[in-house]
Amino acid sequence: MEIALIGISHRTASIELRERVAFRVEQACEAADQLRARGILKEAVILSTCNRTEVYGITRERTADNLRAMETFIASYHQVPQQEFNAALYRHTDREVVRHIYRVAAGLDSMLLGESEILGQVREAYRVAMDHGATGRVLNRLFQSALEVGKRIRTETQIATRPMSVAFAGVKQAEALLRGLENQRVLIVGAGVTSEQVVKHLCDRGVPQFRILNRTLENAKALVARYGGEVLSWEKLPEVLDWPDLIVSSVSTPEPIISRQMVETAMVARGHRPLMMMDLGVPRNIAVDVREVPNVELSDIDGRALALIDDQIDGFMRWQAGVAACSVSAQLRNVPEQGREAVLRQHLAAMMNFTEQERTHFLSLIEKFLKGSRAESVACCQSVPQAFVNS
Question: Which of 183, 237, 264, 320 gets the most CB atoms within 10 Å of its CB?
C-alpha cells in the first residue's frame, strides 16, 4: 500500500480555483465513497477549507498511476478541466504526506503562521471521514498523530502567539548566545509586524546601533521614525552584511534572500569576526547551508517545531514498518522455508519509501515473528502502535 496526497492551497491556486474544487461535507463523504468503490483508494480523508482542498488516501497497491487516478477523479467530480487543475496541484507520497499533514495541523503551512483554526478543521475532516467509515488503520493513526503533533507544537513553541512571542524568543535567544546586546550592532531585514516587535525588544535592551532594510523603503522609514536607527536601501543588503554582530530577518519571500555566497563574502570583509543570524521568516529567509560557514551562528525560531515534526515522522514510519511486518509475516508462515527469501526480497523491493533503518526494523520484526509462536507474533505486532505513541 501507499500513502498518497493530492491538493491545492493558497500557495498554489487562486481563490477562484479553490472555490471550484472545494467539497461540502456531504460531497466529501460521497467522493470518499466513490474513490473506494472504484478501487482507487482503500481509505480516504478529504480536507476542504477556504485555503486548501486536499485528498489523503491509502492505495490498494503501489503503482505510478495512483496519484494520476486521484487527480482524474477530482477533476471529473468537480468538472474542472484537468490541465487547469493539474497546474496548481501538489503531489506527495508516504513520508512527505506525513510531513505535510503534520505541518498543516501545526499551522506551519497556513496563510497566517500558527493560526489555530486549521487544527480544528483537520480534526473535523478526520471525524467526518471516520464516522462515515472512510478511514482505516493507517489514516486513523496518521490523523490522530497529526492532531497530537499540532497540539504539541502550539504548546511547546507558542507559535500561535506570533509575532510577539517569536520576536521576543528570537531576541532572548540572541541575547543569550551573544551574552548581552548592549554593545552589539544589529541589522534588521524587514519592516513588518514581527520586525517591529524585534526593534521594540532591542530598544528595551539598550541596543546602541541598528539598521533597517526593507523592500518598501517607506515602511522602513516609518519604523525608524518611531524607534530610531538608520534606514538602508534594499539593494545594499549584500554589501552591508559585514557591519552587524547580529542579523534578524523577517521577510515574506518564497526563496531565501541571503545566500551562503553572500555570507562568505561578508565574512572575508569582516575579517571572520563572529556573526549571529536569526531567521524569523517562514519560509526561511536565510539559506540553510549558511550554517556551514565558519564563525557564523544561524538560528531559525521554527526549527524546534520542524525538529519535533521530523521526530514524529520517524515514529510514524517505524509504526508503518511494523504494520507491514505483521502482514508479511502472516504470508511467510504459509511459504516453505526455502521460498521465504524470495518473498522477502519482493517485499523489500517494493519498500523504496522506507529508509535503511526502517527496512532493518521491518526485517528484525519479521525474524521475531517467524521465530516466535503465532500468539507471540500477534502480541508483538499489536505492540507496535503503542511503541509509536510512546516514541
Answer: 320
